[in-house]
Amino acid sequence: MSFDYIYFVFWIGSYILGSISFGDIVVNKFTNKNIRTLGTLNPGASNIYSEISPRFGVAIFFIDILKGSISTLPIVLLGYPSWISAISMGLLLLGHMVKTPWGKYGGTGMATAMGAGVGLLPLGALVAVLPSFIVLLITKRPSFTGAAAFLLSIIGGWLIYQDLISTISLLIGASAVLVKYQSQYKEIDIN
Fold first, then answer.
1. Helix, strand or coil for residue 9?
2. Which stretch of DSSP H or E encloses residue 164?
């Protein structure tokens, strides 16, 4: 099997994985509610935490982290060039954030992009965990926590790996999350 074919499989798989809204699936299956009609209308962890239950919100957060890391971490662990995992992350976020062939828009992609960052810059992401958790405890705002996690992962990842492609890719992913967050919530009072 040629390497080009393996890349293609990872890329298509990343897009398909990104297009699956586990928030919708879990909430609908276990509560018979439609999360897209509640709170911020976002099928992400923060809205599920607020509108359904903390248990479901935390579960979706970790499912989305896993979803993101599945698209990048295997590629990194197999020793493929970082541009392969960068493209996988881009396709994952495209599937997650943009209207899919299944007719649904995903959430902001914050946890999914964080998971992809775990694959791109694993030690950078690890460095960000404790300080980001402290930001969450202090601010009680997932958006601030996400911003801190991305910033610390990018800086830590660069200092540890000095991999320009992975660092810029995570910066672009974090920027895409910010743009999606701003466009999705511009008409909703989220305070």
1. helix
2. helix 164-185
Helices (H), 20-53: 22-31, 45-51
Task: Tell whether 133 is covered by a domain.
Answer: yes
The per-residue pLDDT for range 65-122, each reduced to its tens digit, is 999 999 999 999 999 999 999 999 999 999 998 877 777 777 889 999 999 999 999 9
What's the sign of the alpha-carbon dihedral 158, 160, 163, 169? negative
Q: Are 97 and 109 in contact (CB under 8 A)?
A: yes
8 A C-beta contact, residue 112 and residue 93: yes
Domain coverage including residue 156: 3-185
Give residue 122's identity as a one-letter amino acid code.
P
Look up the pTM and report it.
Answer: 0.91
Q: What is the C-alpha separation between 30 and 41, in angstroms, rounded?
A: 18
- Residue 190 domain-assigned (yes or no): no
Count of structural domains, the chain: 1
Tell me the residue ranges of DSSP E strands in 2-76: none
Q: Are 114 and 120 in contact (CB under 8 A)?
A: no
Residue 95, in any domain of the structure: yes
Tokens representing residue 6 in the block? 């393996």
Any domain includes 9:
yes
